[in-house]
Write a sequence for this structure.
C-alpha cells in the first residue's frame, strides 16, 4: 500500500487516532494552542509517535476512552443519518451523514482542545492555587538554605553540579530530574525531611510570569542564573521578555546573593551592579587559570592570592569551566573543605545526552542531543573545532522554539558550525535546514553538507560513516512535536 | 567426536571406562540433554551418546526417516565404533528406537532401560485439535505468512505437539509419531526396566503400561510428580534405579 | 548515477553469512553514499537469482518471509555482452538493467571461488575483489599452499588426497602420513568454514578424520600442526601491486578447540535447531584482539608475510590472509586466504580509520581502476585462420 494512502487511513483508524491525539496532548503538556497547531501541521498521523509512546496515566487513559467512545458515537450518528437519508430518500441526509462520519478526527481534536482549555480555566487554576499555598507553607517552614536555579539553559547541569559538590560535606536535597514545574515542586516539598542544610530548586520557565510565581512560592535564599538565550520564544515572543521573567527572581532574593553567569552574553542587559557574577575567567573572587579540555575531561585551577586549587572534572568542553568553578567556589563559600571540593568536582561527569562522549566502532561520538539552545551550539562547536581528529562530522536538526528569530538564529548556528571546520555537516530536512545552510554559505564552509529525511535512520546508520580517529558531534534532537 | 555413519556426518560423545552403555535422546533433544546423567554414569561405564540424525551436531537425514531407519542408524553407529553395548538407555523417542532395534534383533544388549519411552500413539492426543489444525490451515491460507506462522506456533503449543521443535524435520516427525513399536516390544527377551513419571503428558503412564505388558518380564517404576524428562527432573532417583538395574 | 549490483546468498554453507555481509557491510554503506543505485541480486540455495528492493531488508530473511517472497517472484536472468545486464521481471515480461559495477558479497563455493567472477569477466563488467585465478587458488587450501611456497613463504608441511582414495583406502593413506609429524590437522580443501576439520593425535584418529573430511570434499589436506600456536588474520585491500594491510587480528580461542565441533557449532544449540547457532562473524569479532598481541618484530614479520601471500596469490581488491605463528621459534606460516572476508572485516578496517562507507568506496574505486587499465590491453586478435582453412 503506498504510504500516503496508509497515512490517510491512519487518520481514520479510530483506536489509533484517539491514542495519537491523547499522546499529542500529553507531549504538549496539555496546552490547547500548541496541540492544535501541531494537529494542523501533521500530514501523516501514523508517523507522529516515532520516538515515544503514550504514557498511560490515569488522565490519559480516561481522555482516550472518552475520545474513543465519542468518536464511535459520532460514527454511529453519521451512519444513522446516512441510513435515514437512503431510506427516506433525503439526499441531504446522506451528505450530512457522510460529513459527520468523515469529520470525526478533526472534530474531536478541537473538542479535546476546547475541553482542556475549559479545564485550565476552572479545575486546574484552582488546583494550582491550592498547590501553591501548600508549597509556600512547606518551603517557608524549612530552615535550610534554599537555592533557586534559573535560566534558559544549563539549569539541570548546574543543579547536578551543586548537588555533587555540596553533597561531599552537607546534607543536600534537589528537585528530581527535569521536574521543574509547580506540581512537582509540591511533591518535592512534601518529601523534604526538614534536616537538609541546602535545598536546590530548579525553576522551569515556559511563559511570562512563571519564574516570579516560583519565587514567591519557594522564597529562595540564593539564586543562580545560569544564562539567557532564545528559548520558548513561541510563548515569550522576545528575548527581553524571557530575560525579564528570569531576572524577576532577584525581586525576592537579596541582590548580593544573586549569582549570574556572565559568559552568557544576553544577561548583560539585566545585570545590576550588586549582583555577583561568575564566568570562565573569574568566580566569587577567584581567578580561573590553566583551563583545558579534551574528550576525557576538563581541568582548571582556582587562584586567590597565593592560594591555588586544582580541579578536574569528567565533563567536557570549556563552557563547563564557568559552572564548575562556580559550584566549587560556592561550596568553599558555604564552608566545604578544599579536599572535599576537589573530590566533589572530580565526581562530576557528563549526563546522558549532554556533551556525553562514547565510542562507536573506534570513533568518538559526543552526544549532546538534549542540548537545545544557541549557547550550547556555540560551546559544542568550539569544542569540536579544538579537538584533533582525522575527520569531524557535525550533526544537528537545528533549534526549536525560536519564534520570529528562527532565520537569524539558524544563520548564526551555520556560522558556529563553519568555524569548527567539520568535514561533513549533517542537517535534517526541516524548517531550520535552509537557514543553517545560508549561514554555512555566508561563512564560506567548504566541506560536505548532507541532508537527511529521517534523523532516527541516520543515527542508526552513523556507524557506517565513522572509523577510528573520527569525532562526531550530535547536537539537539527534536522531539516529536517539532519535527 | 565426529564420524561418518551410513553416509551421515555424526557427532557423538564418549567418556568413561568400563562396559559400554549407549544413550539415545528424545525428539528435539540432543546428546547434551544427557550431559549430567552421562557424566555420572561415566565413573563406572564407557558411555557413548550420539546426536541422532537431524539433532545437535549430526546431519539431518536426506529423506524422511521412520523409527526403523533410526534403529538401523544406531546399529551402524555401534558397528562403526566397534563396540558391543552392555546396555542401551533410551529416552522418549530414543526409547522407541531402542525397542525397535532390540525387538528386531538389529543390535543386542544385556540390559535395556526405557525412560519415558515413546513408541505407542499418545492416547491423550486430542483428535479435536487435529481437525482444528486442518480447518485452520485452509482458513489461514490468505493471511501473510508471518501472521500464519505465529498462529500455527500458538496452536501447536496448545496441542502440546513437538512438530515445531525441529521444523526442518517435520516429515520425519510425522512418520515417527505414526510408528507403533508394541509388536517389536513383544519380541524382547532382554531384561528391561521402564521408568515413567506420573505427571508426564507427552508419554503418559498409559504408554508405560502398554509397553510393560508387551515386554515380558519387564520391570516398571512410576515416579510420582515427575514429568517427561525423567533423567533430568528426577536425576538422583533415576540414576540410582538405573545403576541398581545395571548392577543386578 | 552508477548502478551497482550486489550478489549474495548462494549455494554454499555460508549462504546466511553472505546475506549479513551484503546487507550490513555492502548494500547499506553503498546506499548511504547517495552516489549509487544499488541492485540486490539474491542467489537462493537452489541457485535461482532474484532481484527486488524487498531483498534489502533484513526482516525478509527472518520468520520465513523469504520463502513467501521467493515463491511469488520470477527469477532474474543475465546477459553477458557489452557489459552485464540483468533481466529483471517486470509487469510485462522482463526489463534489462545495465550493471555498471558488480559487487560480489558471496562466501564459499560457487561465490568466492571464482565461478561468479567468471561471469563478470565474460561480460566485461568492472567487479569488486579478487579475479578468477586468485579466487580459485585461494579457495583450494592445498593449491594456495603450493603457490605461496613457490613464492618462498613458509607453510606447514602437508599432503593431500582425493576423496575417492580416502573412501576406498583410508588406512593405506594414513600410513603415507607417517612422514608427517603428529599432531596433524585434516581439512577438506575447499570448504570456507571449519566444517569437517579435525585435529588428530594418532593413526586411528587420522583414519576417522580422513573419512569425515572426505564426507564434505573431494580433496583432503593433511598438515602438521604448528606448535606454540598464535593464530592471526590480516585483512588487506588494494591492487596486487600495492596492497594495504589493516591490523593483524588475533582470535581469542584456544588452538585445540578452535576447530572443535562442540565449541564452534554447539553454542546455544538447544533443542537441536540444525546444530545450533553458528559462531558467526559477530562472535568472531567479539572474541578477537585487534591488533594482535605480538612483539614488534613478530608483528612486522607476520604483516610482511601476509602482504607477500596476497601478492603471490594475485589477490586484488580485498582478501584476508590467515597465518599461524610458532611463538617460541618466532616463525610465521601461511595458513589460508579468504578472497571475500565475512562482513569485509569492517570492524578491523574501522580500527585503521576506514569506515564502512570508505571501505566500499575504496573497493569500487579499485574495481574501476582495474577495469580501466585492462580495457587498454589488447584482448582480441584478428586472424585469417578461417579463411585459410
Amino acid at each position: 500500500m503506498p504510504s500516503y494512502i496508509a497515512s490517510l487511513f491512519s487518520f481514520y483508524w479510530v483506536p489509533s487516532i484517539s491514542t495519537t491525539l491523547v499522546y499529542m496532548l500529553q507531549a504538549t503538556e496539555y496546552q490547547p494552542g500548541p496541540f492544535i497547531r501541531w494537529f494542523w501541521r501533521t500530514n501523516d498521523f501514523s508517523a507522529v509517535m516515532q520516538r515515544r509512546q503514550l504514557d498511560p496515566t490515569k488522565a490519559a487513559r480516561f481522555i482516550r476512552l472518552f475520545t474513543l467512545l465519542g468518536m464511535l458515537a459520532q460514527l454511529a450518528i453519521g451512519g444513522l443519518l446516512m441510513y435515514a437519508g437512503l431510506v427516506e430518500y433525503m439526499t441531504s441526509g446522506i451528505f450530512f451523514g457522510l460529513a459527520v462520519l468523515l469529520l470525526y478526527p478533526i472534530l474531536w481534536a478541537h473538542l479535546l482542545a476546547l475541553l482542556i482549555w475549559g479545564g485550565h480555566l476552572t479545575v486546574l487554576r484552582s488546583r494550582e492555587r491550592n498547590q501553591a499555598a501548600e508549597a509556600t507553607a512547606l518551603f517557608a517552614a524549612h530552615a535550610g538554605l534554599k537555592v533557586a536555579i534559573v535560566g534558559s539553559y544549563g539549569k539541570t547541569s548546574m543543579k547536578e553540579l551543586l548537588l555533587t559538590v555540596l553533597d561531599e560535606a552537607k546534607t543536600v536535597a534537589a528537585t528530581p530530574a527535569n521536574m521543574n514545574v509547580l506540581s512537582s515542586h509540591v511533591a518535592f516539598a512534601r518529601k523534604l525531611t526538614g534536616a537538609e542544610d541546602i535545598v536546590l530548586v530548579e525553576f522551569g520557565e515556559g511563559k511570562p510570569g512563571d519564574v516570579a510565581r516560583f519565587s514567591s512560592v519557594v522564597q529562595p535564599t540564593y539564586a543562580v542564573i545560569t544564562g539567557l538565550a532564545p528559548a520558548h520564544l513561541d510563548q515569550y515572543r522576545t528575548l527581553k521578555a524571557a530575560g525579564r521573567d528570569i531576572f524577576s527572581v532577584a525581586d525576592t532574593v537579596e541582590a548580593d546573593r544573586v549569582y549570574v553567569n556572565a559568559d552568557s552574553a544576553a544577561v548583560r542587559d539585566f545585570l545590576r551592579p550588586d549582583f555577583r557574577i561568575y564566568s570562565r575567567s573569574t568566580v566569587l573572587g577567584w581567578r580561573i587559570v590553566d583551563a583545558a579540555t579534551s574528550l576525557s575531561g576538563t581541568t582548571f585551577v582556582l587562584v586567590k592570592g597565593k592560594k591555588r586549587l586544582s580541579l578536574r572534572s569528567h565533563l567536557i568542553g570549556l563552557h563547563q569551566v564557568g559552572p564548575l568553578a562556580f559550584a566549587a567556589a560556592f561550596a568553599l563559600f558555604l564552608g566545604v573543605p578544599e579536599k572535599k571540593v576537589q573530590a566533589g568536582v572530580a565526581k562530576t561527569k557528563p549526563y546522558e545526552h549532554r556533551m556525553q562522549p562514547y565510542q562507536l566502532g573506534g570513533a568518538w561520538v559526543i552526544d549532546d542531543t538534549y542540548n537545545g539552545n544557541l549557547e550550547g551550539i556555540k560551546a559544542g562547536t568550539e569544542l569540536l573545532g579544538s579537538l584533533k581528529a582525522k575527520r569531524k562530522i557535525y550533526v544537528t536538526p537545528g533549534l526549536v522554539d525560536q519564534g520570529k528569530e528562527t532565520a537569524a538564529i539558524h544563520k548564526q548556528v551555520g556560522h558556529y558550525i563553519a568555524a569548527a571546520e567539520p568535514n561533513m555537516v549533517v542537517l535534517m530536512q526541516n524548517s531550520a535546514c535552509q537557514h543553517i545552510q545560508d549561514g554555512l554559505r555566508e561563512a564560506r564552509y567548504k566541506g560536505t553538507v548532507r541532508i537527511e529525511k529521517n534523523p532516527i535512520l541516520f543515527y542508526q546508520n552513523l556507524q557506517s560513516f565513522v572509523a577510528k580517529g573520527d569525532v562526531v558531534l550530535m547536537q539537539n534532537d527534536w522531539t516529536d512535536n517539532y519535527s | 567426536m565426529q564420524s561418518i555413519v551410513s553416509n551421515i556426518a555424526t557427532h557423538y560423545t564418549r567418556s568413561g571406562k568400563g562396559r559400554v552403555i549407549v544413550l539415545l535422546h528424545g525428539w528435539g533433544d540432543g546428546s547434551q540433554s544427557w550431559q549430567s546423567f552421562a557424566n555420572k554414569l561415566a565413573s563406572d561405564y564407557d558411555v557413548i551418546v550420539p546426536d541422532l540424525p537431524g539433532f545437535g551436531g549430526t546431519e539431518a537425514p536426506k529423506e524422511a526417516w521412520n523409527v526403523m531407519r533410526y534403529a538401523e542408524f544406531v546399529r551402524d553407529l555401534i558397528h562403526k565404533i566397534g563396540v558391543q553395548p552392555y546396555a542401551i538407555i533410551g529416552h522418549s523417542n530414543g526409547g522407541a528406537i531402542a525397542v525397535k532395534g532390540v525387538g528386531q534383533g538389529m543390535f543386542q544388549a544385556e540390559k535395556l532401560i526405557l525412560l519415558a519411552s515413546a513408541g505407542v500413539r499418545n492416547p491423550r492426543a486430542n483428535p479435536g485439535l487435529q481437525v482444528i489444525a486442518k480447518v485452520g490451515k485452509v482458513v489461514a491460507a490468505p493471511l501473510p505468512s508471518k501472521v500464519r506462522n505465529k498462529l500455527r506456533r500458538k496452536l501447536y503449543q496448545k496441542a502440546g505437539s513437538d512438530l515445531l521443535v525441529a521444523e526442518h524435520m517435520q516429515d520425519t516427525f510425522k512418520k515417527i509419531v505414526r510408528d507403533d513399536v508394541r509388536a517389536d516390544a513383544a519380541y524382547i527377551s532382554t531384561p528391561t526396566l521402564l521408568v515413567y513419571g506420573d505427571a508426564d503428558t507427552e508419554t503418559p503412564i498409559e504408554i508405560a503400561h502398554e509397553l510393560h505388558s508387551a515386554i515380558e518380564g519387564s520391570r516398571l517404576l512410576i515416579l510420582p510428580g515427575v514429568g517427561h524428562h525423567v533423567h533430568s527432573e528426577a536425576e538422583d532417583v533415576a540414576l540410582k534405579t538405573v545403576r541398581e538395574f545395571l548392577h543386578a | 548515477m552508477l548502478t551497482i549490483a550486489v550478489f549474495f546468498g548462494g549455494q554454499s554453507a555460508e549462504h546466511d553469512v553472505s546475506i549479513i555481509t551484503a546487507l550490513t557491510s555492502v548494500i547499506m554503506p553503498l546506499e548511504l553514499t547517495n552516489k549509487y543505485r544499488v541492485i540486490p541480486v539474491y542467489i537462493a540455495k537452489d541457485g535461482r537469482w532474484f532481484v527486488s528492493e524487498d531483498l534489502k531488508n533484513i526482516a525478509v530473511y527472518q520468520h520465513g518471509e523469504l520463502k513467501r517472497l521467493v515463491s511469488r517472484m520470477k527469477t532474474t536472468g543475465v546477459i553477458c555482452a557489452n557489459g552485464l545486464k540483468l533481466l529483471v521481471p517486470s509487469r510485462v515480461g522482463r526489463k534489462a538493467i545495465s550493471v555498471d559495477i558488480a559487487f560480489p558479497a558471496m562466501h564459499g563455493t560457487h561465490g568466492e571461488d571464482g565461478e561468479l567472477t567468471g561471469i563478470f569477466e565474460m561480460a566485461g563488467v568492472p567487479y569488486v575483489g579478487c579475479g578468477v585465478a586468485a579466487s580459485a587458488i585461494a579457495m583450494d587450501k592445498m593449491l594456495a599452499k603450493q603457490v605461496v611456497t613457490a613464492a618462498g613463504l613458509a607453510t606447514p608441511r602437508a599432503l593431500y588426497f582425493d576423496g575417492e582414495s580416502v573412501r576406498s583406502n583410508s588406512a593405506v593413506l594414513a600410513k603415507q602420513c607417517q612422514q608427517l609429524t603428529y599432531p596433524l590437522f585434516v581439512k577438506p580443501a575447499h570448504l570456507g568454514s571449519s566444517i569437517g576439520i579435525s585435529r588428530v593425535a594418532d593413526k586411528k584418529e587420522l583414519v576417522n578424520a580422513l573419512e569425515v573430511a572426505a564426507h564434505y570434499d573431494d580433496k583432503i589436506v593433511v598438515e602438521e600442526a604448528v606448535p606454540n600456536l598464535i593464530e592471526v588474520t590480516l585483512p588487506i585491500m588494494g591492487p596486487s601491486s600495492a596492497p594495504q594491510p589493516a591490523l593483524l587480528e588475533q582470535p581469542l580461542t584456544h588452538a585445540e578447540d578452535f576447530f572443535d565441533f562442540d565449541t564452534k557449532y554447539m553454542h546455544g544449540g538447544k533443542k537441536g535447531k540444525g546444530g545450533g547457532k553458528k559462531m558467526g562473524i559477530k562472535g568472531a569479532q567479539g572474541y578477537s584482539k585487534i591488533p594482535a598481541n605480538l612483539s614488534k618484530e613478530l608483528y612486522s614479520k607476520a604483516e610482511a608475510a601476509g602482504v607477500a601471500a596476497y601478492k603471490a596469490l594475485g589477490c586484488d581488491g580485498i582478501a584476508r590472509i590467515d597465518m599461524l605463528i610458532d611463538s617460541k621459534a618466532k616463525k610465521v606460516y601461511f595458513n589460508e586466504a579468504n578472497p571475500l572476508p565475512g562482513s569485509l572485516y569492517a570492524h578491523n578496517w574501522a580500527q585503521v580509520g576506514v569506515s564502512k562507507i570508505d571501505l566500499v568506496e575504496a573497493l569500487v574505486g579499485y574495481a574501476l581502476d582495474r577495469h580501466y587499465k585492462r580495457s587498454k590491453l589488447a584482448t582480441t586478435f584478428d586472424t585469417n585462420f578461417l579463411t585459410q582453412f
